[in-house]
TrEMBL record:
Pfam families: Mu-transpos_C_2 (PF22483). NCBIfam families: transpos_IS21 (NF033546). InterPro entries: Integrase_cat-core, IstA-like_C. GO terms for biological process: DNA integration. The lineage of its organism: Bacteria, Pseudomonadati, Pseudomonadota, Gammaproteobacteria, Lysobacterales. PANTHER family: TRANSPOSASE RV3428C-RELATED. It comes from the Bacteria. This is IS21 family transposase. Residues 130-311 form the Integrase catalytic domain.
Length: 513
């Protein structure tokens, strides 16, 4: 307390009839403090001259004993307390109890203990102002706050993650909505950001999410798909330290600006697609980047164009996301599972390890740094895509064991062979039950030739026995020759003097001897 306040309060107490509250208001002291001064003056029968004759220390000792006693309090070991608070489960209240138990008479009360600790900790949390070169760095993060859009066909609500980035010294803001934090969406958001800025910062600083960093620490291990994207654009990935938000202060600040100027502005709008949501976000981001900042009297975009853009790396063609899967050991059925769908590889690679490079449209199978298979990507979970060239001969033969294949084969021989195969398939309870018979027919045709086989099928149809056994018996006994003779005997020309079989079948007609 200042000395002039104390002396002024004593003078007013002793020389006026003003109340304690009125004196307190006049000298800016608490009512209880004035009341205590009055009690001490009466207790010691002091006059104004007695008070003025005392030196400052004596006055403080007389009128402010609590303040004098506080000067004798034990100062806690703040560095020790700060270290102990980093341990799990340790609280300030626990540490205060331990401090008080050492000597209750000289210890601070809990509220004063907390106030003094906060004041001490505030002197330790120093920040170093960083100076970055123009266009050198860009900061990226997810906002942590989801936005949504509604499917107009079903009414289903979909959530979207918000990617936020700040570029260069100017801190040009960018934001976009993506379906999730998966690595393909994380990479896609970076591509949109680089093309929005029209260039690439030399250093990109992300957080330690799994899509960016597979193993955090002093030597972080980057996600291979994320690293491939960085190599394409020529930027260096330097993840921020874990639980060190100051390492990406511009990204944190960008997220705060986004929450206030985008999410709050769009809170009452309903979007019906992800593209529509991104259109709304882009409109708000343009307003932020074009708004004049009082500190610089320029907008973010103006400062970016003047300072950062000339220093950015040139923008290459747009990166096509690719994700590496593997190593994967090839099972005995020579089909490997990539994102839930099974793709064939050459059967000779069974029990070997392969890798897969996955883009949004293509799956490439890599073995010993060589591509051994390539497929259009399928999203059918549990489905199978097979290249016949990857199958061994006996598997290929079994794969061809289908009704369609046998019908096509028979059609290539002739209509009689086709009729026999159709009869076998239609006569079975299920077409699969006649496949072995069709296979035996094919073997018989290879043994005796297609021409004889076609004639034998015609003979079997004529005797109404279109079976494998009948066709085989006809061929073994050469009975198909009758069909050949019928096929090659020319028909007699029509003539009035030629009697047909009907003539001789009629008993009423007199026949010449």
């Amino acid at each position: 307390m200042k000395q002039d306040k104390l002396v002024t309060a004593v003078r007013l107490i002793l020389t006026t009839s003003a109340s304690n509250r009125q004196i307190g208001r006049d000298v800016d002291l608490a009512y209880n403090t004035i009341r205590r001064y009055r009690m001490l003056l009466e207790q010691h029968a002091l006059t104004l001259d007695d008070v003025e004759a005392l030196n400052e220390s004596a006055r403080q000792a007389l009128f402010n004993r609590r303040g004098a006693a506080q000067g004798e309090r034990r100062v806690p070991d703040w560095p020790h307390i700060h270290r102990e608070l980093q341990r799990k489960g340790v609280t300030r209240t626990l540490l205060w109890l331990e401090y008080r138990d050492e000597d209750p008479d000289t210890s601070y009360e809990l509220s004063r203990f907390n106030d003094l600790y906060r004041a001490w900790a505030g002197t330790q949390a120093l920040s170093m102002r960083q100076q970055y070169d123009p266009g050198e760095r860009g900061w990226v993060d997810f906002s942590g706050t989801l936005m949504s859009w509604v499917d107009p066909a079903t009414g289903e609500q979909h959530r979207a993650e918000i990617f936020v980035a700040a570029t260069g010294v100017a801190g040009l803001l960018f934001a976009t909505a993506v379906p999730s934090q998966r690595v393909e969406h994380w990479v896609e958001a970076h591509c949109r950001w680089y093309h929005f800025a029209g260039g690439v910062p030399r250093i990109t600083i992300p957080d330690n999410l799994k899509s960016a960093v597979t193993k955090a620490g002093s030597e972080p291990v980057l996600n291979p798909s994320y690293l491939a994207m960085a190599h394409h654009y020529g930027t260096v990935i330097l993840p921020a330290r874990s639980r060190r938000p100051k390492d990406k202060a511009l990204a944190e600040g960008g997220v705060l600006v986004f929450l206030r100027w985008v999410i709050a502005r769009l809170r009452n709008r309903v979007f019906h697609s992800l593209d529509e949501l991104n259109t709304g976000i882009a409109e708000c981001i343009d307003l932020i980047n074009d708004r004049t900042m009082r500190r610089y009297r320029q907008s973010r975009r103006e400062r970016f164009e003047q300072i950062d853009r000339p220093a950015l790396l040139p923008l290459p063609e747009r990166y096509e996301f690719s994700e590496w899967v593997g190593p994967v050991r090839v099972p005995p059925d020579y089909h490997v599972s990539i994102h839930g769908h099974y793709y064939s590889v050459p059967y000779r690679l069974v029990q070997q390890q392969i890798h897969a490079r996955c883009t949004p449209n293509v799956i490439e199978i890599i073995s010993h740094n060589a591509r051994v298979a390539s497929y259009a990507r399928s999203e059918v979970i549990g489905g199978k895509t097979t290249d016949r060239a990857h199958m061994p001969d006996h598997h290929l033969a079994w794969a061809d064991h289908t009704p369609e294949r046998y019908l096509g084969w028979a059609q290539g021989i002739g209509h009689r062979a086709l009729a026999v195969v159709q009869s076998l398939l239609e006569g079975a309870r299920h077409p699969a039950a006649a496949l072995n018979s069709c296979g035996n027919l094919q073997k018989t045709a290879r043994t005796h030739g297609a021409e004889r086989f076609e004639l034998a099928c015609g003979r079997a149809l004529a005797i109404k026995s279109p079976t494998v056994k009948s066709v085989r018996s006809i061929l073994q006994n050469g009975l198909e020759r009758h069909e050949r003779a019928l096929a090659i005997t020319p028909a007699l020309p029509s003539h009035g003097n030629v009697r047909g079989p009907n003539y001789y079948a009629n008993p009423e007609v007199a026949h010449a001897d």
